[in-house]
Amino acid sequence: QVQLVESGGGLVQAGGSLSVSCAASGSISSINVMGWYRQAPGKQRELVAGISVGGVTNYLDSVKGRFTISRDNAKNTVNLQMNNLKPEDTAVYYCHLVDMGFRRLEFWGQGTLVTVSS
Fold first, then answer.
1. Which of 10, 80, 90, 118 is found 20 to 30 A from 21 (Cα to Cα)?
2. Rounded distance, CA 118 to CA 100, Å?
3. Cβ-Cβ contacts under 8 Å for 10 (sequence gap 6 or more)
4. Residue 89 carries which DSSP code?
5. Tens digits of per-residue pLDDT, 20-56?
6. Among candidate residues 100, 112, 107, the one with its CA nearest the CA of residue 26
7. What is the pLDDT of residues 102-116, one digit of tens each?
8. C-alpha to C-alpha distance for 21 and 54, rounded to whole angstroms
């Protein structure tokens, strides 16, 4: 069983910075992608950023140049550094892991709230 434990988030003023981190534990294959999704009230969950074991990244267009995702493969952790935050970034942020070992499995964290005030 894989568990994802998130930390970070909170309240920040527009233009400020926050980071959220996630630590994965359990049996995880060496072929996986970790990332962050977010869900704002009344909206669908969307992919914010993802990163492969090899360091290949992808970002939601609206966060490019402001957010940076990174990971530590030895520790199975992923971090999302968020700069120049905007009120529209307010959402619950969820850590996500796709394990592409013997069979494709997906795991989610419990979510952490990021609130950006104007």
1. 118
2. 40
3. 18, 113, 114, 115
4. G
5. 999 999 998 888 999 999 999 999 999 999 999 999 9
6. 107
7. 889 999 999 999 999
8. 19
